[in-house]
Every structure is written in structure tokens, then in C-alpha cells.
Amino acid sequence: MGFRKDFLWGGATAANQCEGGYNEGGRGLANVDVVPIGPDRFPVITGEMKMFDFDDDHFYPAKEAIDMYHRWQEDIALFAEMGFKTYRLSIAWSRIFPNGDEKEPNEEGLKFYEDIFKECKKYGIEPLVTITHFDCPMHLIKEYGAWRSRKLVGFYENLCHVIFNRYKGLVKYWLTFNEINMILHAPFMGAGLYFEEGDNKDQVKYQAAHHELVASAIATKIAHEVDPENKVGCMLAAGAYYPYSCKPEDVFASRNNDRENYFFIDVQSRGEYPAYALKDLERKGIELKMEKGDLELLKENTVDFISFSYYSSRVSTTDPELLEQTAGNIFASVKNPYLKASEWGWQIDPLGLRITLNDIYDRYQKPLFIVENGLGAVDTPDSDGYVIDDYRIEYLAAHIAAMKDAVELDGVDLLGYTTWGCIDLVSAGTGEMKKRYGFIYVDRDNEGNGTLARTKKKSFDWYKQVIATNGEDLSTE
Description:
The protein has helices spanning 15-18, 41-45, 68-82, 93-96, 107-122, 138-144, 151-166, 187-191, 201-226, 248-270, 275-283, 294-300, 350-364, 390-408, 458-468; strands at residues 8-12, 86-90, 126-132, 173-177, 231-238, 241-243, 305-310, 314-316, 368-372, 414-420, 440-442, 454-456. The protein is an alpha/beta fold. It has a single domain, classed as Alpha-Beta Barrel (TIM Barrel), CATH 3.20.20.80. The strands form three sheets. It has an eight-stranded parallel β-barrel with strand order 1-2-3-4-5-7-9-10, surrounded by four helices. Strands 6-8 form a two-stranded parallel ribbon. The protein is globular, with a radius of gyration of 21 Å. This is 6-phospho-beta-glucosidase. The active site is at 372 (nucleophile).
């Protein structure tokens, strides 16, 4: 039994958190570039504070990130040494179309990713490509209001035509939008949405989401037309909600929280807006503007597989006395008294991954792909730059064991597993470098100091052993 023979083991990154080179190779500015570290980060990513360019009062970690733009060959060689079968990365939209609305793409940007994909193939690594991992060119935000404008569907369609044709035969696995449900929680970071005074925020967010859902269906259609071998997935920030108690109101609250998470995936996987979502929009007074043919597009172009991130489970309650929230994560949750938490307050729950896998598989009966899972922690290197990260090994071993149970004991169809931040990178939530996830230590701090030198951590060799044994050897000694 165990994992399938062609199980796709690997790691995941996002362009805006690792590439840097924000103004090189003809790249244009994007929303993800102008998000600072510090107390203003959250107001900016939620669209409450306007920051459309750099200023002298803030530090912007994505400008250089870990400089993978100049070091990708070294990094891919390290991934290959671990035995990666797949590498999840994202395309920076503004590298291909610097403004987003040009007719013709930027050849230098296209070549950059082509070289990366060819390098992966050289090592037998299958690229898993996120088309949009929060990136939105700043020109589209200033000129059109980002995804609140229907015009972005056409610009995204143009991007898809270009990349599916250019990378045919190099890339087989695609994700349309990273954590599409993040548009509700961090709308500027997730979709470039900024709110003006007097905006009906819910109306703006859900209309923008509809545009993304239509764009995702169009991407799926084009991908299948260009190459029938292409497999297209959706992607959500997942984590089952537990009721705090067996009080029926808590149980119903957890169900509603789950539904909010699954809403967009219901559309992408089943092909239509679910009844509960239509009722919710009606209650909120939201009227989605749809064009003729939208519903047919959604129905006829559902995804081939469902991918998701999992870091922790969450808890729902209706008791106002219990609303002490977990820290750190954009998805705030009531604390679970039965779980330990990470240094950033994220609750550690390996069994929750098995529960989440079962929930999603039961709901959609489509192959699943875990494309983010990991532990953000402060790593302290010794004098040789070596990090003994037993805490990360224990976290990952427990989650892989739970994942294995879901496959072996529950019959979940799982395509692969890519740990988040396989090399240290900038945190999306906090902008910190000290919140590290990687098997590879990068000498860089929160203020942008350091040599950027890469060093293998203890977990590097551990994960190499996991991949070599197809998940059979999870020993942490």
C-alpha cells in the first residue's frame, strides 16, 4: 500500500517571496512588491491603507527577497539533491506582462521561466506552476481597480494563452490562483483590491472573486485545448473547523466557517455556485454582475484536481467569552485547548490534516494535492551555519504520517506533497525572514542584512530519506 509509485514529493515557493529582482529583466511593479514589513503590513494587505509605491519610511522585503532571480540554478540543484520529484513555483505576472494589459509579452521574462523549467526537467523534477500567487501588476490596480474590473479576465486570459503555448511540454501541472479564498481575508495582497471610502467591501470582494472564478475556468479551458496532457488544479487555504463544543450552535458555526472556505472550490470543482452561497450573497445584499455565458463556462471547465495549503485546524464557537483568538495567522481562530502552538501561535494538529483530506475528498471525489505544509520557526545556526531543526522534522514527520493514514486507511486519492518554503523565504503573513520554513537556511534577516549564502539544515537529509523511501522511512533519529 502506501503512496502511489509516482507520488510527487517536493517543495513550494512563490515568486514574490523568493525571487527578488523586482526591477530587472523588464519586470513591472506588482502589489506584492509594495507590502512592507512592520505594523503597517496588515492594514496594507487588507486594503485598508493605500500603498501603491515604495516610500523611505518602510522596508519592503520582496524587492530582493532571497535573490533567487540570480541564484535559481544553485537552488534547483539543492532541490534535486534532496530528490524532489516536483517543485511548485509561481510566475510573476509582471515579468511576463510588466503592466498587465500589453498585447505582447516580455520575452526576457518568458525566457527566465523557460530556463527554470528546463533546469527542473534536467534533474527529472516536474514543475508545478501557480499562474497567480497573489501577484497583480500595479498598473492594473491603478488603472482598472484590479480584479474589481471585468477587464482583468481578458488580461489574465492573454497571460494564459502565452504561457500555456510557450511552456507546452515543459509544464504539465498548473494551479490557477493561490489560496483563492484569501481574497476575503487579505484582499490587497490576495487580489490587489484597495477600498475607497464608501465602498461596499463585501460587494467588491465577491464581484472580484467572480471575475477570478471565470478567469480560472477560462484558464482550465485553454490549458486543455493547448495540451490535453495538462492537469489544472484550484487551490485553497484549508484547515477543518472544529466546533468548540457539542452545543448545536457551535457545530453549525463550524459548518458555516467550513462553507466559507469551500465556497470558491465548490464553483471550481463542481461548476456552479452552491445554494448556501447564493443565499448568503442574497442576505448580504450582494448582486453579482455576470455576463452571458459565465455560468456555462464555470460548468464546462471544472478543475482536474484540488490542491490546498494546510498549517493548522481551526475552532468555531458562538460563545463571546471564548473568543480568545490564536495569533499570527491571517485566519484567526479560537484557541484549541488540546493543541500545542508554534512560536507564531499556529496550532499544531497533524490529525487535522487527515480530517481535512477526508473532508475535501468526500466533498469533491477528485484527486488531491497538498501544496503547502510546514512549520515556521526561528532557526539558530551554529558556527558552521548548520541548523539542527528537530522541531521541524517532528512536525513534518507527524503530518506525513497522518497523510499516509488518509491514503492507506481512508482511501484518499493523493497526487503529491510539497512542503512550504523548502528554502527559507519571506513570510507572506508577516514579511519576516526569521519565520523560517526551509530545509535550506538562507543568511538573511528581517532588515535585509546577510550574505544570502545557502546552508543545508538537518531536515535537508531527513527529507531526502523520506523521498528516497517514498514516505516509508519517517524516523526522526
